[in-house]
Design brief:
Double Stranded RNA Binding Domain; 7 strands; two-stranded antiparallel ribbon; single chain; alpha+beta
Length: about 170
């Protein structure tokens, strides 16, 4: 029984830091027609130069695993943009005092806020059809972000973001 409780707690803790993704796509497109890509000509992710380099490396590896190449005329442009925001944790601990007697009761309670705000990084990856100049697929991935993370931790984070994003490509109709 203790083992089950421990596994349950570990599962909850490990799931708290996994990226979440939302996908959208043009359902009139045949995604099997795409095999080549390039980064969008005016690629500006909004990340620092070092983080952008890490993200691009993760994208290149992910796209290679999906069977894409960068040789020849591109079928898709890939554009990425990001934003950081604070996740306002509204958790608090409640304390109450009460008493009563007969048909009367009195109570006083209050909440003590638990400050645990997290920085969330939202990365949007767009696949744009080069011929039509139209958005055909999009993934929005959110994950907790530690601004003080080491370069290795950041690289791992971007690998996970790209992996999570590409789980939804090609779309399963």
């Amino acid at each position: 029984m203790k083992l089950i409780k421990l596994l349950f707690v570990c599962a909850i803790l490990s799931s708290c830091n996994t990226p979440r993704a939302v996908y959208d796509y043009d359902d009139t497109i045949s995604f099997s027609n795409y095999g080549t890509y390039q980064l969008f000509p005016d690629f500006q992710s909004g990340l620092s130069q070092l983080d952008e380099t890490r993200l691009i490396a993760s994208l290149k590896n992910g796209m290679k695993e999906e069977g894409f190449s960068t040789s020849g005329e591109p079928g898709l442009y890939i554009n990425v943009y990001s934003r950081e925001f604070m996740d306002q944790n509204r958790s608090n601990v409640g304390i109450g005092i009460g008493g009563g007697g007969g048909n009367m009761g009195v109570g006083v309670s209050g909440g003590i806020p638990i400050e645990n705000n997290s920085v969330i990084l939202e990365v949007t990856i767009d696949f744009i059809d080069v011929a039509d100049d139209s958005l055909v697929w999009q993934a929005i991935v959110e994950t907790k972000f530690n601004p003080n993370a080491s370069p290795e931790e950041r690289r791992s984070m971007f690998d996970k973001i790209v992996e999570k994003a590409l789980e939804g490509y090609p779309p399963k109709a």
